[in-house]
Automatic annotation (TrEMBL):
The lineage of its organism: Eukaryota, Metazoa, Spiralia, Lophotrochozoa, Mollusca. GO terms for biological process: protein O-linked glycosylation via mannose. It holds the Pfam family FKRP_N. InterPro entries: FKRP_N (IPR055105), LicD/FKTN/FKRP_NTP_transf (IPR007074), LicD_transferase (IPR052613). GO terms for cellular component: Golgi apparatus. This is Fukutin-related protein. Residues 346-391 form the LicD/FKTN/FKRP nucleotidyltransferase domain.
Amino acid sequence: MRPLKRRWKPLAAAVTVILIQIWVFSWCNRENAEHFPVTLTDAPLDNQNLKNLKPSLTVILQDFDVFENTIYDTVAYIARNFTDIDVLVISETLPYPPVKVPNLQNVKLIILKADPGTTLNATRPDLNIRSNFVLFIPDGSVLDIHFKRSFNVFTRNFEADKQEGYATPVGNVQLSCRGINFNLKMWTLHFGDIVKTGKCGYIIGEHGILLETKHLYAVSQPHLPSTFISLYAQLSLVQFKFTVTKDLHLRKLPTKPKSPQALWQLKQFKQKSVQQLYHQLGVKKVVHENEKVDWYGCHKESTRCFDTVYQDMPEFLYHGRWTPPCCLNNLRETSKHVFTILERCKVRYWLEGGSLLGAARYRDIIPWDYDVDIGIYKDDIGKCTQLSRIALESYVDDEGYKWEKAIEGDFYRVQYSEVNHLHVDIFPFYSKNGVMTKDTWFKTHRQDTEFPEYFLTPLSWVMFGGINASAPNHIRDFLEYKFGKGVIESPKYPNAEVVVG
């Protein structure tokens, strides 16, 4: 017995040392986890794997003001109280002034436009989502235990494969269900009126957006600036709808009122984010529910929205889009300016080619046309100071329009401005044995041909882009003489075989 007692004391001491080492090792690992966040995942989950997951959630914060925000408190509250929920803070560039993010194992800051030295995993949100649901929340909104319980109930009763997202109100705010129409071909986003069916295109009021993760793959760019507007606009292209949840509510963190300076900075931040979003989505025109229109395209002080046109095919047609609405609007203004001057000078003019075809078919410019063509009597040039001056020099008139002689041939051109080259081409015709002819022809334009003068005696009028414009008489006969039978009823693109849509 005595030898056994002698052995027991060293054994007990050894066990004690081992336990202390285990405790120290565990404590160090915990400290390291807090100070060195780990990567959430190295590869995205496909839809099949997402279906096999138990209901799980990733929270995403993206739109936040770098000057004054509650990112740290928001993220810390969620990540520390719900360790089974991953939190992603997403920014287009590294935030400056710097934004503090908690160093927790289930938190990650993702910079979309990162430096060359960073990894792909660090710049791709989709590579860091391992849940089958994602929740986009505004800064200062958090999940609490009631939300988590309601979410568990929600997922138990959830019907998979629905084309539907969910708006989660912040506090007791009343959300407004609205319609939305993103016309990609016409570069236009239209925010509609109140929708009473409960199937919303977009939602007004402070809220979060809950989606199945697979629905992020239904859009090309789910993490653009102004994320909520971006998601609503892009998902509308696949007939996606949203409903307001009754049971899932976010809680607002208490914050002090913002100073006037902070409010001004926030307004500037939101305006810049919206401009960036519309630029990346290719939105040139936004129509609000009160019919107010905001333009995000070209203007007199900018270049036009498209580059040099090759073989009569503007680049936007290759992308399945029509002429940007700002360009069409600026062409209408240029046309009105030119027509007003010519009428004042008693110069006989008429719509030519595709412009006359647009007037006959749409009472407007053809939706994919990019200039306006008119003919004039060459004998009338001397009646108009503006036309006579072009022979001597190019110039900009008092309203900012540039008048010049075209370099492609013997005709004139009036541009929207010196930098914006949307234009009206003016072709001088003269009568020769009862036939209208001119000195410059475009071989690739079938409609660019001589025609009997009787189409101009007398001239008629036609609606064109909201104004009355001079036109040949017997417009249908004139167009069919130039283009062929049935041209008004048979719209087609130039080089139609290579156009996307």
